Amino acid sequence: MLSTRKQNWGEDRVMFYDAAGRLRSLLASWTDVAEPDVFIQVAAGRSFVRPCDLATLAALIGQIERSHGG
Fold it and tell me: How many CB atoms lie within 10 A of CB 14?
């Protein structure tokens, strides 16, 4: 049974109690709690990364290059 949904460790997670009464958590994206991701639906398995993830990666690479004098 779902207990709560919140940001934990920088991730959208759902908390629930298992059959033994222990509190467990899963990524909300692994459940049907969240609305379906429109990008994933449209990509239909043809893309492994979202455009925003690529932009974040490019920014990180730029930051690493600048910190190493590149």
Answer: 20
